[in-house]
Amino acid sequence: MRLAKYLAHAGVASRRAAERLIAEGRVTVAGEQVTDPAHDVEQASPVALDGRVLRGPEPRVLYALHKPVGVVSTASDTHGRPTVVELVPSPGLRLYPVGRLDIDSSGLILLTNDGELANRLTHPRYEVPKTYRARLGDGPVTQRALAALRRGVTLDDGPTAPARVRRLGPDRIEITISEGRNRQVRRMCQAVGHPVRELVRTGFGPLRLGELAPGAHRLLGERDLRGLRETGT
């Protein structure tokens, strides 16, 4: 295993941050300083950071969480706001969210310590679909607005890919996108004349929010992981 990956799996830092720690000369393998993040590490090799021997790779875990409105999708927050990580007790594990939901939105978000899986689920090339239910403002949703969302709309950062959209009621829609731009669903709906009043993510790849209550979480099993890994292949 490459040294940077070993540190990331040991819960020390993200892969990129681990590479910086290694380059700074703070990591030793079997007592020898190593500055190459690609250095190959045997499972039994003692690896230390700042002189402290690491316990080795953490067990890989993945949680589904129903993020409530008012909670931020980060591991920590400089303004003291509640974070998604605080809602999932994980003694000894360094969890981080997979992608984000803005503070005014709720619904399904994933938390993991598996950097490779997180990258696969968020990288644009894999086009992992995410489904939302939205309550919209400014009158009943028109067929013209639905058609525009299905074609894709032009935002300030470029045109979007076509979305899958169905009407749930006069002012409610379900929309599925495979991109991950900042506040994308809100901006798309605003662009077609219907600002979002309420937004809930109900699906991430093959996973569904289901009956998970706001603030509740569940540990995902191998069947869930297999479905996520196969998404976009």
Which characteristics define this entry?
233 residues, 21% helix, nine-stranded mixed sheet, Structural Genomics Hypothetical 15.5 Kd Protein In mrcA-pckA Intergenic Region, Chain A, four-stranded antiparallel sheet, alpha+beta, Alpha-Beta Plaits, elongated, 15 strands, 6 helices, 3 domains
Categorize the overall geometry: elongated
Q: Assign the CATH class of the largest domain.
A: Alpha Beta
Instruction: Provide the number of structural domains.
Output: 3
CATH superfamily heading of the largest domain = Pseudouridine synthase I, catalytic domain, N-terminal subdomain
**Mean model confidence by pLDDT:** 92
What share of residues is helical?
Answer: 10-25%
Spans of 5+ residues with little confidence (pLDDT < 50)? none
Radius of gyration: 21 Å
User: Element order, helices and strands?
Assistant: HHEEEEEEEHEHEEEEHEEEH
Classify the secondary structure makeup into a structural class: alpha+beta
Beta-strand residue percentage: 25-35%
